[in-house]
Amino acid sequence: MSEVSPLPVFPAAQRWSELLSGWGIPDHILDQAPEPPWRHDPARFAVDDTLDRNTNSARWARQVLPPVGGTVLDVGCGGGRSSIALVPPANELIGVDSSGAMLDHYLDAAARVGVARRTIHGEWPAVSPSTPVADVVVCHHVAYNVADIVPFLWALTDHARLAVVLEIPTLHPMSAWSPGWRRFWGVERPFGPTFDDLQAVLREIGIDPEVTTSPRARASGYESDPRTLVPVARRRLCLPAARDAELAEWLAEHPPPWADTMATFRWPGSAETPF
Fold first, then answer.
1. pLDDT tens-digit series, residues 201-237
2. Using one digit for the tens of pLDDT, what is the confidence trace for 25-57?
3. Closest listed residue to residue 255, CA positions, set 173, 180, 170, 174
4. Is the pTM higher than 0.85?
5. Spatial distance between the Cα atoms of 73 and 129, rounded to a whole number of angstroms
């Protein structure tokens, strides 16, 4: 009988997973939460006139797209802000997301700019076998949600003919709520992982990415307007609506320390280029 080769061990990936596990919410808090704390409002991710087409990530993707045409696969596409910014030169978009509501926004945004589009509903990389390859794969603001990061990154690479462009905040996005967890629950939240940890994982699996950082543009409205900030904070912190007044007063004096820097990674894809 032939021996089975052991699966490779990736210490940096194990560290990534362990650090992410620290963001779990204690059961006694989660069990009484009035609404799911991790839920996102699809409308917040819709493409509107605040779309920035000149971010580092958008520029790096356009640099490798064909000057005319080209396909973009957007993993964790949300409402489409990451890939709509690439039209033109992109003339075909493929969106993958686990939320059907997000995909509805994505199709609407793609239709408004007149680009060919299709969507795939499901979790990445589970849906990767049924997902077509593209010239460029973009993946923004998703990696911090992925504990088993190596198959996720390999599937991105396997679906890109030219390049993968991945963007995340330099710090975990839920770090903004750490002071609130301390104030309302007496719970200390973790620090990592950070973008440095993701870079370590990529290098560990044989990918040497280009990396750049840039200031993060502030999202309009909800980060400063109490009418939208308080409901988001209430959900994230597992608080009841009865504490809205207390929460609003505290937020006015302690605005969330949003991550102010974004990290962009780019590396070559491994999908075959058709002749």
1. 999 999 999 999 999 876 555 666 777 899 999 999 9
2. 999 999 999 999 988 776 677 777 778 889 999
3. 180
4. yes
5. 14
Q: Is the pLDDT of residue 1 over 70?
A: no
DSSP letters for the chain: -PPPPPPP--HHHHHHHHHHHTTPPPHHHHTT-SS-TT---GGGGB--TT--TTSHHHHHHHHHS-SS--EEEEET-TTBHHHHTTTTT--EEEEEES-HHHHHHHHHHHHHTT-EEEEEES-TTTTGGGS--EEEEEEES-GGG-SSHHHHHHHHHHTEEEEEEEEEESB-GGGGGHHHHHHHH--PPP---BHHHHHHHHHHTT---EEEEEEPPPPSSTTT-HHHHHHHHHHHTT--GGGHHHHHHHHHHS------EEEEEEEE--SPPP-
Is the bond leading into 274 cis (omega within 30 degrees of zero)? no
**Identity at 120, one-letter amino acid code:** I
Tokens describing residue 136: 């460029």
Phi, psi of 105 (to 5 degrees): -65, -40
Pairing of strands 261-268, 210-215: antiparallel
Q: Residue 119 above 70 pLDDT?
A: yes
Q: How many CA atoms lie within 13 A of 253 on its CB side?
A: 6
Which domains are delineated in the chain? 11-173+188-223+260-267 (3.40.50.150)
Instruction: Output 3 or 121, whichever has higher pLDDT.
Output: 121
The answer on pLDDT for 92 being more than 80 is yes
